[in-house]
Structure to design on (190 residues):
């Protein structure tokens, strides 16, 4: 009897460990909607001002319906406790749909549908994370002002390192992110 109970408990624990991460809510547009996303009017200057007022960094995430890499990021990377804490504590996140029609106003005042703004910014992959500095030069676009851009899905370690590097203004020292990442990974194996 005890052996049967232990076997059942072991099998149940193994099934739970093998289960995929909890699914993130999907919106009517087919995009993932974690509760840390900000619903805004997609006026990037206003979003930047609001992020600054909260002491956060503005991160724009561009996604598309059915994107398997977006799902991977939302279900396995963004839900990692360290990554999620960085996002919640330090970032103001605005989502755009790569093929959407919602108007977006760029930093220079140009207003275009999401799909045309993504082309203007050179976004070709989903997900793409775009990070803005706290201040931008007048007339700059998001593409010109961005301090970092991560096109595509990366693992927890790289994503956490990028969020930390941007938060800590690593780009301001001139240290390339790849060097920062390599040094961080080398330190992790010591």
């Amino acid at each position: 009897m005890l052996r049967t109970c232990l076997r059942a408990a072991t099998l149940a624990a193994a099934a739970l460990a093998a289960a995929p991460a909890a699914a993130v809510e999907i919106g009517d547009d087919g995009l993932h909607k974690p509760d840390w996303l900000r619903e805004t009017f997609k006026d990037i200057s206003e979003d930047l001002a609001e992020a600054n007022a909260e002491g956060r960094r503005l991160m724009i995430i561009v996604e598309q319906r059915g994107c398997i890499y977006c799902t991977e990021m939302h279900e396995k990377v963004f839900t990692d406790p360290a990554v999620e804490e960085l996002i919640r504590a330090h970032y103001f996140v605005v989502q755009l749909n790569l093929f959407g029609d919602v108007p977006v106003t760029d930093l220079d005042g140009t207003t275009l549908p999401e799909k045309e703004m993504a082309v203007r910014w050179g976004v070709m992959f989903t997900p793409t994370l775009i990070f803005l500095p706290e201040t931008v030069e007048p007339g700059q676009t998001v593409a010109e002002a961005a301090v970092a851009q991560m096109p595509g899905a990366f693992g927890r370690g790289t994503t956490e390192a990028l969020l930390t590097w941007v938060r800590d203004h690593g780009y301001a020292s001139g240290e390339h992110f790849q060097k920062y990442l390599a040094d961080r990974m080398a330190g992790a194996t010591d």
